[in-house]
Amino acid sequence: MQGEWFETIFDERYPELFGPLEGNAEKEVEEILALLAVRSGSVVVDLGCGRGRHAIPLARKGCRVTGVDLSEKMLGIARTRAHMEGVSVEWVREDMRVFRRPGEFDLCLSLFTSFGYFRDEENQSVLDNVGASLKEGGTLLLDLRNAGKGLSRLENWDQTIEVPSGKLRMSMRFNRRTMRAMAEHVLIRQDGIRISSTFDVRVYSVDELETMLAHAGMRVKNIFGSLSEDPFTDESGRMVVVSVREQEASSRR
């Protein structure tokens, strides 16, 4: 029996189907460190860490990093790379709806639209777990595709690009009833082999995210249009939400 899309998509197909869309992780880590003024020795969890693209350079910069992912295949790639580079990262195979370590982390990263996979109540559970796992004053960075502009305008789109292994066709469909964006990636390799993958994520407005984060004990501090602090507008490609874990009432007295 086939599982949910997020249980099957992160396999050997992933680098070819999604790798061409990934940014320069080393540069993105530098931007994150500057954006959040992350100090060496900070305890960081990369939630949905995948192949360790960000976790490994973060550890190289002196952070104490835990990488969490559901895919053993992706974690296997991450472990191999970390070992080859002599970098120490704790790799944990766990569902983000379950992973929780109360008061352990200074910073939680959710990058490359790794949030919104599940039903609303489950997505809330993810944020609740993050809120519980952050130290008071700790920070959550949510890096999401700003698909809201497409959803609000019902702008479905298709695009085909040339990639090293062939031609990659990407399509996106927006469902206003469910407030979800559904996408398909199809790669026609140069050897004629066709591989594809589909996924869908819940698209949240800023107001919805603020409410959900408040429920999890966090307060939105800033919203940017990129990791390099571009202003957030309706036309921004990304929505980067920076939230802070509120202090408990008893500790504010």
Could you list some keywords that capture this structure?
2 domains, single chain, globular, 253 residues, alpha/beta, 7-stranded mixed sheet, 9 helices, Rossmann fold, disordered C terminus, N-terminal domain of TfIIb, 4-stranded antiparallel sheet
Q: What is the count of β-strands?
A: 11
Content-based structural category? alpha/beta
Shape: globular
The count of helical stretches stands at: 9
- N-to-C order of helices and strands: HHHEHEHEEHEHEEEEHEEH
Characterize the biggest β-sheet: 7 strands, mixed
Q: β content, as a range?
A: 25-35%
Q: What is the assigned CATH homologous superfamily of the largest domain?
A: Vaccinia Virus protein VP39
What is the secondary structure topology, with strand pairs?
Elements: H1 5-8, H2 14-18, H3 25-36, E1 43-47, H4 55-60, E2 64-69, H5 72-85, E3 90-93, E4 105-110, H6 120-133, E5 134-145, H7 148-153, E6 157-163, E7 166-175, E8 180-189, E9 194-202, H8 206-215, E10 218-224, E11 238-245, H9 249-252
Parallel strand pairs: 1-2, 1-4, 2-3, 4-5
Antiparallel strand pairs: 5-11, 6-7, 7-8, 8-9, 10-11
